[in-house]
Amino acid sequence: KQEVTQIPAALSVPEGENLVLNCSFTDSAIYNLQWFRQDPGKGLTSLLLIQSSQREQTSGRLNASLDKSSGRSTLYIAASQPGDSATYLCAGAEYTGNQFYFGTGTSLTVIP
Amino acid sequence: KAGVTQTPRYLIKTRGQQVTLSCSPISGHRSVSWYQQTPGQGLQFLFEYFSETQRNKGNFPGRFSGRQFSNSRSEMNVSTLELGDSALYLCASSFDRGEETQYFGPGTRLLVL
Question: Is the peptide bond before A82 cis (omega within 30 degrees of 0)?
C-alpha cells in the first residue's frame, strides 16, 4: 500500500521568505501528482498538477517538481505571504485513474 | 462555472443510523471520487464512479456504498453508523479518468454520537 510522507509537518516563517515543502512516496511508481491547499474547515483547492509526461509545473509564485526515480516531490513557494497560510497536501496516483494517495500534510503559517 | 457542491454541509447522527450524502460535480465532469478525512488517518479514498460505474474502491467496509446517476451526480451511503465514521467527507470531480485536475467540494462534516 502506498504511504505518503510530507516533511515538515508544520512550518512557521516570516513574510517574504522562500520555502520548500517535501513529499515522498514509499512506492516510486507515481503516475501523476497533484498539490492542494486546504484552509481550516474547507475543502481542497488544486494548486498544481504534474502529469505523467512532465517533471515540473509552475503557477505564479508556486513551482512543483516530481522525481519519479525516487518518488519525491517538492513544492517551492516564493516570497511567501500571510494569505499562503494553510495546510498543503500532496497526492499521487499510481496509474491513470482517480485514486489518489494523500500525504499527511504540512501546516504552513506565514507571519506578517 | 459552478464548482462541486455537496449537501448537506453538516450532519449529526447517532450510532446505528444510516446517512446519505450527495455530491454534484462540475458540469460536464463524469468522474466523481469520494474521500474520508479524519485527524488520525488523513484523507483516504473511498470509491470512484465514472459514467454510473464504480471503477475503483478503497479499503473500507461494505457499510460504505455509493452510486452515480446519469447526470453524474453521486451519492454515498453509510449504514449502521459507528463513532469512528465521524469525519469530513469530500467528493472530487474531474472530466475524465485521465490526467485531469481533481476539483473538490467543500465537504460534508458528519458527527456520529
Answer: no
